[in-house]
Design a protein that fits this description.
alpha+beta, 7 helices, about 25% helix
Length: about 350
Amino acid sequence: MAKNDKLKTASVLSFNRHLDPSDGRMFAVNWADIAKDDVTTAILIQEKSVRGTISNRPKNSKEIDPAYIDAAVNKANLQTVDVAALPQGKDTVAVSFTLRVLPNVGQPSACNDVGFSERLSTVVSAYQTDNKFIELAKRYAVNLANGRFLWRNRIGAENVTVSVARIVDGQPKNTLNFDALSNRLNEITVHPDQQKQFDELSNWVQAGLNGDEHVLLKVTGFARLGEGQEVYPSQELILDTSNAKGAKSKTLYAVKDKEAGLHSQKIGNALRTIDTWYPDAEKPIAVEPYGSVTSEGKAYRQPKEKQDFYSLFDAWVNENKVPTIEQQHYVMSVLVRGGVFGESDK
């Protein structure tokens, strides 16, 4: 097929993810003991029943009547919730997970169009030859070094440190340590004092993406919160609400036997929060086809502006319209993320 022939995106097109984190397990430790590698005390999820107050916004004029308000606040707002906290005698939460960095970025796991697959392979190979995934590897490494994967557990902590070990033959070969609080979440660089270790970490990630080496990392983030302080596992989305009456109003994620944990999807979202290439960027956002940030109810990459993944990807592969280097990084980061991107005939 000639280089300039216009193609149509395959109707069946999907990609596996290439940053593959496990669920995160949460443990209680003492800050003074983290160097001993004694991370064995799991944090358990417990139920708590509380009597809340009525505090919702009024819906109509009736609900702002003083008599109505008095009657409403006198009603018991009983709730059962899941909670997780550090026990007395332990002042630090540890979140531990493993991360596989996989090769063959841009190679579809399913594609029903040979011509499209060949053109895609040419595009990805050219990018890899020119860039070696250096920029993407650095940005993923930043989110390990700054402890973004700790999410709310990072906020307000007195100290936060991250340990990243390269696992070879089932054993840690090298271990890198980072002072996470000195690496800001809204920046894509690390503190100069940590540059040497950071360069090694980004080289590990780059080697995995390029397929030069098998890369498996064990990552542990430590956040010093204080004895007895609440910690924040992932919250479960309860899809079956048929028995909602009397059910818990908050259900936390347990890896097993009530042991608190973070969803692998939540950790993955933190690691791919590298997109500063969207229009008028002010902060990194998670790599998504439309630049979606659900907590803000906003899509930063609008199809109307031709800055969404589909517009850039289709033009690059189908029409050989090579985007700017920044948008090339973005498109490749979406392929690292993985997903189903086929174009329906309907």
